[in-house]
Amino acid sequence: MSATQKVPFLTQSDGRTIPQIGLGIYGPDDAGTADAVSTAIEVGYRMIDTAALYQNEGGVGEGIRRSGLPREELYVTTKLADDSHGYDSALAAFDASLRRLGLEYVDLYLIHWPLPGVDRYVETWKAFERILADGRAKSIGVSNFQPRHLERLAAETTVLPVSNQIELHPGFPNDAMRRYDSDHGILTVAWSPLGRGRVFGNPVLDGIADKHGKTIAQVVLRWHVQLGNVVIPKSVTRRRLIENLDVFDFALDAEDMAEIASLENGVRTGDDPDLYNG
Ligand SMILES: NC(=O)c1ccc[n+]([C@@H]2O[C@H](COP(=O)([O-])OP(=O)(O)OC[C@H]3O[C@@H](n4cnc5c(N)ncnc54)[C@H](OP(=O)(O)O)[C@@H]3O)[C@@H](O)[C@H]2O)c1
Predict the structure, then answer these.
(1) How far apart are CA 164 and CA 144, in angstroms?
(2) Which residue, 127, 155, 233, 260, is the most exposed by fewest CB within 10 angstroms?
(3) Distance between CA 229 and CA 168 in Å, rounded?
(4) Rounded CA gap, 243 and 14, in Å?
């Protein structure tokens, strides 16, 4: 069975499905991104996560074209940059993202950060509803939203986000936000799922990895899968891309899950969404 067949799909609240593991591609320039994306697709990835902020949407488009895979077999996410909040700015920014990607639609368009101090995410979401209605994003969602930001969207707009992409890894499991998402029919997508590399060398994870004959990356990604997260590990390394998909032939038991839960230290690798304003 190929890796593609093994990656399960989760169903969003709008009825569409998303592969549970995809490639996050923050970091490389266009050339490096195109190489990583085409390799990832070759080894079985069917979901790619980028953002206007990453300045590599062109590379994502190039990697997809190089792969030769029919567009409808791929799930592509991009995100609105912080300087483009507002109704008209969001519409223009979306057009620019599609142009850079060289695609006619994205599967998922996200507000990258709520920017509570700017306070234009409700107006921005109304532009997202328009993009959705036009069919140019098949689904719309958010990233780094806290409960109060989601409550405002629910009260002041029509469409609910299908997913919320948040920081989530063993050191920062973000349990309350994950539970809120789940209670409201929103899928949680875990960013920096490997803690940007901080999980490596951890003796507890090393012990669990030994027990299952797996690597630390595989144990952590399996933990995400068992929590019900969508997960987007980043790698530009072919061997690691393959390794990170190969997590569907073993299961963590309750003891393993409890040991991983004990690694919480509350330390983020990125910004606090309540404080970050672009
Ligand atoms: N929405 C947001 O605000 C937000 C914020 C941050 C990130 N993200 C998204 O989340 C994605 C992933 O997060 P991230 O890039 O911060 O960090 P990450 O996926 O937690 O970690 C990536 C690092 O781990 C290494 N790595 C990957 N697989 C490995 C393996 N099997 N063994 C050893 N090392 C491995 C990578 O190295 P190599 O590449 O050299 O192999 C890279 O240095 C991003 O690319 C982006 O798409 C979103």
Answers:
(1) 7
(2) 155
(3) 9
(4) 31
Calpha distance 112→85 (Å, rounded) = 10
202 lies in a domain?
Answer: no
The pLDDT of residue 1 is above 50: no
Domain presence at residue 44: yes
Give the tens place of pLDDT for each residue, 129-187. 999 999 999 999 999 999 999 999 999 999 999 999 999 999 999 999 999 999 999 99
**Tokens matching residue 249:** 């032939």
Position 264 in a domain:
no
Domain span at 82: 9-197+228-249
Give domain status of residue 163, yes or no. yes
Digit-coded pLDDT (tens) for 142-156? 999 999 999 999 999
User: Which ligand 1 atom is the nearest neighbour of the CA of 165?
Assistant: 1
**CATH code of the domain containing 165:** 3.20.20.100
Ligand 1 site, CB within 6 A: 24-26, 49, 112, 143-144, 165, 191-197, 217, 232-237, 240, 243-244, 270
The values of phi and psi at residue 272, to 5°, are -85, 120
Question: For residue 196, how far is its CA from the centre of ligand 1 (angstroms)?
Answer: 5
Query: Distance between CA 155 and CA 213 in Å, rounded?
Result: 48
Nearest to 49 by CA among 79, 71, 4: 79
The domain total for the chain is: 1
- Reply yes or no on whether the pLDDT at 278 is more than 90: yes
| Closest ligand 1 atom, residue 236 Cα | 39
